[in-house]
Amino acid sequence: MAKVAVVYHSGYGHTAVLAASAAQGVRDAGAQALLLKVDSGAQDFDDLLAQASDADAIIFGAPTYMGAASAGFKAFADASS
Predict the structure, then answer these.
(1) Is the pLDDT of residue 62 over 90?
(2) I want to staple 73 with a disulfide (CB 3.0 to 4.6 A). Which of 5, 6, 9, 17 is the partner?
(3) The pTM is what?
């Protein structure tokens, strides 16, 4: 069974709703969905990175502030490189 990670940061809950909907779509399509929440830019990303690396596909979700991804998601993205 394919495994799809949905990695997201949600400042006010709106992106969390979209991430849950995307995960449900993954499950409806017959794959396993992993919801991986980025809590803040100061957290330890090792577990999230390991789980995302183990997935067959990744869906990213983040709110935009001032035309860019949220600081929490940007910190995750930087840690992934």
Answers:
(1) yes
(2) 9
(3) 0.92
